[in-house]
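Exercise 7. Given the encoded structure of a 281-residue chain, write a plausible sequence.
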């Protein structure tokens, strides 16, 4: 039996698939789908079509549409996916962590402006890196209190009453949440498994598309690229200055410009961002 596997840039999940049988080991759910006997008929064709086409989708809007089409059988009407920001992150910065979304605009405004993200019980469960869960399970949590109940009730006012969330983890250790919502969501183990599989592939592609956009915006000079490469090789400003035949102050200026362009807090962060955006290799 031949297996084809894909490890996305997001590092979300490693999912094996084969031509006649699909095994989904995702978020604690292991599902055997025998295509010959059609044991899992709902959405299987759409799922396989999505997995085949996802690498060819070139913008976030089309990716969002494709995800919803692939999960429509499970009652999915809206999706939201992004990295989980640190506690205390400003609303404008929180929005930058979102990669895919067609949440109601009014709800998104309330959610981020009022800091509801930090009271959202789905976020708490994502941070525990638990298996894919239905929102209906949250009310059974021991720490589900007044604030959490208010968040869920407010979301319901915007037709976000039922849903499933897939917790994922990126290669650099960041927590990711991928939520599916609708009036009536199928939260069976089989549906959760398929949604987890689709979420991992979709988020991986979303990260690639975001990195492509950022890379196109970053304009490093040839000297700045060379400086980054030498920093990555462990050279100090003085050593790089000797290599270039300039003062270490001139190198420090290049480093400062690089950090500003990449939004990096220090040299190590700048190198990490450069590798992530494939500006250096």
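Solution.
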């Amino acid at each position: 039996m031949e297996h084809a596997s894909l490890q996305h840039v997001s590092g979300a999940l490693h999912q094996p698939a084969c031509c006649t049988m699909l095994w989904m080991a995702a978020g604690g759910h292991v599902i055997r789908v025998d295509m010959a006997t059609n044991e899992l008929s709902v959405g299987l064709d759409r799922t396989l079509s999505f997995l085949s086409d996802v690498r060819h989708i070139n913008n976030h809007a089309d990716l969002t549409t494709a995800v919803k089409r692939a999960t429509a059988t499970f009652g999915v009407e809206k999706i939201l996916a992004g990295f989980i920001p640190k506690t205390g992150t400003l609303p404008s910065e929180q929005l930058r962590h979102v990669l895919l979304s067609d949440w109601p605009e009014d709800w998104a405004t309330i959610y981020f402006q009022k800091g509801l993200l930090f009271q959202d019980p789905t976020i708490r469960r994502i941070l525990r890196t638990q298996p894919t869960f239905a929102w209906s399970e949250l009310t059974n949590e021991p720490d589900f209190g007044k604030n959490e109940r208010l968040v869920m009730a407010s979301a319901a006012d915007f037709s976000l009453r039922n849903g499933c969330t897939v917790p994922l983890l990126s290669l650099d250790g960041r927590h990711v949440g991928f939520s599916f919502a609708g009036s009536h969501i199928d939260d069976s183990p089989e549906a959760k498994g398929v949604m987890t599989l689709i979420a991992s592939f979709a988020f991986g592609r979303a990260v690639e598309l975001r990195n492509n956009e950022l890379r196109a915006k970053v304009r490093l000079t040839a000297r700045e690229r060379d400086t980054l490469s030498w920093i990555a090789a462990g050279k100090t400003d003085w050593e790089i200055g000797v290599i270039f035949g300039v003062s270490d102050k001139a190198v420090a200026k290049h480093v400062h410009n690089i950090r500003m362009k990449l939004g990096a807090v220090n040299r190590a962060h700048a190198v990490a961002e450069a590798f992530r955006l494939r500006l250096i290799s």
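Remark. Residues 4-214 form a domain with the Beta-Lactamase fold (CATH 3.30.450.80). Students should compare their own answers with the one above.
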